[in-house]
Design brief:
With 185 residues, the protein is of the alpha/beta class. It contains 5 helices and 7 strands, in the order αβαβαβαβαβββ. The protein has a 7-stranded mixed beta sheet, sandwiched between helices. It is globular, with a radius of gyration of 15 Å. The N and C termini lie far apart (42 Å). GO terms for molecular function: methyltransferase activity; nucleic acid binding. This is 16S rRNA (Guanine(966)-N(2))-methyltransferase RsmD. InterPro entries: DNA_methylase_N6_adenine_CS (IPR002052), RNA_MeTrfase_RsmD (IPR004398), SAM-dependent_MTases_sf (IPR029063). One of its GO terms (biological process) is rRNA methylation.
């Protein structure tokens, strides 16, 4: 995998083979960041990377100027790899080793973009828990975006706050929006 754009464009990252991960493809990642670049000033946002794995998405945000990044994964090896890689690139990426669902239940911090890349073999019920917990706990800023990566064979369009999906090869990104304003709360 490589960093697609920004300060570290072209840098290759090689994760240990023993990590339980499936990194987002460079093609899908590039397409996703083209969308995000048109909606946000990436140096001005807060990002939460759930099921962070290798940290692939976190590095891409950091390379593009995002300074407020929190990566969450339950695998010790993944967290160690993210910390080592971020340190070698001098990226300020915070990490938390935790089960994502437990983290979402107790977290109180809001983010502009929340990216979740759970295992593709999750049931629709497990996928549904992600936006349910995020919106129930008000973890997404107004006009924020939740992006869930999943297989093209999984349909998340029936979940609350669903906006749309984009597919790139076998990868699909489903977008969920927080459209409530502060006045409505």
């Amino acid at each position: 995998m490589r960093i697609v754009s920004g300060q570290f464009k072209g840098r290759r990252i090689t994760a240990p083979k023993k990590l339980p991960v499936r990194p987002t493809t460079d093609m899908a990642k590039e397409a996703l960041f083209n969308i995000l670049n048109n909606q946000y000033y990436l140096d001005d946002i807060s990002v939460l990377d759930l099921f962070a794995g290798t940290g692939n998405i976190s590095y891409e945000f950091a390379s593009r100027g995002t300074e407020n990044i929190l990566s969450v994964d339950q695998d010790h090896g993944c967290i160690k790899f993210i910390n080592e890689t971020a340190a070698s690139f001098e990226m300020d990426i915070q990490t938390i080793k935790s089960d994502v669902f437990k983290f979402l239940e107790r977290s109180k911090q809001q983010h502009t973009i929340i990216f979740a890349d759970p295992p593709y073999d999750f049931s629709v019920e497990d996928f549904t828990k992600i936006p349910d917990l995020i919106f129930a706990n008000n973890l997404l800023e107004t006009d924020g975006l939740l992006i869930v990566e999943h297989s093209k064979y999984t349909d998340l369009s029936g979940i609350s706050n669903y906006s749309h999906s984009k597919s790139y090869g076998g990868n699909t990104f489903s977008f969920f929006e927080n459209t409530t304003s502060d006045e409505e709360e």
